[in-house]
Amino acid sequence: MENKEGQYVKRTQKDYTLAFKLQVVSEVENGEIGLKAAQRKYGIQGDRTIRTWIEKHGQYDKSYKLRSMKKSPEQELMALRQQLKLLEKKNRRLEKELNQADKKALFFDMMIDIAEEEFEIPIRKKFTRTVDKFQKEEKISLSSLCRLVGINRQKYYRSKAKVRSNQGLAEKVVALVQEVRNKMPRLGGRKLYHLLQAELKALGVGRDKFFTILRANNLLVRPRKNYHTTTNSFHHYRKHKNKIADLKIYRPEQVWVSDITYIGTRENPMYLALVTDAYSKQIMGYDVSNSLSSIGSIRALKQAAKRRQYPNEELIHHSDRGIQYCSNDYQQLLKKLGISCSMTESYDPYANAVAERINGILKQEFIADFFHLGLDAMKKIVAQSIDIYNQARPHWSCQFMPPAEMHQQQELEYKSYKKKTTLAQDHLKPELLN
């Protein structure tokens, strides 16, 4: 790997987060990508680095795999005869195709003409890779091939130089993207462009070209869907009123939102309790446990209280009507901390949208719910993810600042393209919380 000055920088295992290692292991074991391809795609140093990760974190035990048996002479003869039959069949097909080669060439030539005319795509200009591949496979000279297809050699050389230039530029952009995604493996293209804007500008890469490079190298992130109910509102505890329905949120530690989200697998369920500042989107407290009891939520709230930076300001705690938040222990802790309680009054998806969105970001971009891990390993991944999220991940609604930086601001308005919404909707719609 090279830094901005072009100097080689050696990586250590600490440069890769556990979530990143597990993502690479999963892709290799599922057959989505090979070892060498994964090494090139993610810029991983060391020939045995990925193998070491697979041995340590992989799903499959290769000690049970049987060694391949050597074929007997009879089996080899049968295989050769079968191959001979296939070759004879292929030869007959090729002879038939050869007899129609001229007509086929004329047909495809006419088809290209029609496609270029109807779709206005200069197909014949995309010829360099075809020329290279054809020249290599058919052992034909460049001059002969250019004469055969009616292409000027100088035009070929100019096009080839442009391709090399584009590939060199793409390599630099992909290296920048990999540097960010070593810590945030599933950060989306829009956030990447914001974080790398200065470097991309120096390379002469705008937004459209940046997304073209991401798309060409399969680096665009597709969101995952996850459905799992963690809210039980059918209980006898008191349910509090919604105090933030028409509240304008204008400062940090004015409103905290809490929620519990499901992580892990069906065989090994785990739950993540979060307390998030509605203004800055900073995660103030969290807890990972294998139970839906109120204990995890209480630990998250205690952690958040210790991290308050504006302890003298009035604070509202907003959540759904889950039994964890309505329980006597949780309500007594809120009262002891001097925090007012607010709860959703319906199943409106916007009612606790900030908390729901932060859950989604952690699970989509940091893949905290993707692997079959034990509780200790999951706690490590979540701790790393939340630290990176708070300190580095930009938010559109925070003027593209990371939550920790936004938490230091006072009365900074949210960016919004929505003009005809209520105050609560304007702050809490999911599309404005990224």
From TrEMBL:
<feature type="domain" description="Integrase catalytic">
    <location>
        <begin position="248"/>
        <end position="411"/>
    </location>
</feature>
<dbReference type="InterPro" id="IPR036388">
    <property type="entry name" value="WH-like_DNA-bd_sf"/>
</dbReference>
<dbReference type="InterPro" id="IPR012337">
    <property type="entry name" value="RNaseH-like_sf"/>
</dbReference>
<dbReference type="InterPro" id="IPR050900">
    <property type="entry name" value="Transposase_IS3/IS150/IS904"/>
</dbReference>
<dbReference type="InterPro" id="IPR048020">
    <property type="entry name" value="Transpos_IS3"/>
</dbReference>
<protein>
    <submittedName>
        <fullName>Transposase</fullName>
    </submittedName>
</protein>
<dbReference type="InterPro" id="IPR036397">
    <property type="entry name" value="RNaseH_sf"/>
</dbReference>
<dbReference type="InterPro" id="IPR009057">
    <property type="entry name" value="Homeodomain-like_sf"/>
</dbReference>
<dbReference type="GO" id="GO:0015074">
    <property type="term" value="P:DNA integration"/>
</dbReference>
<feature type="coiled-coil region">
    <location>
        <begin position="70"/>
        <end position="104"/>
    </location>
</feature>
<dbReference type="Pfam" id="PF00665">
    <property type="entry name" value="rve"/>
</dbReference>
<dbReference type="InterPro" id="IPR001584">
    <property type="entry name" value="Integrase_cat-core"/>
</dbReference>
<dbReference type="GO" id="GO:0003676">
    <property type="term" value="F:nucleic acid binding"/>
</dbReference>
<keyword id="KW-0175">Coiled coil</keyword>
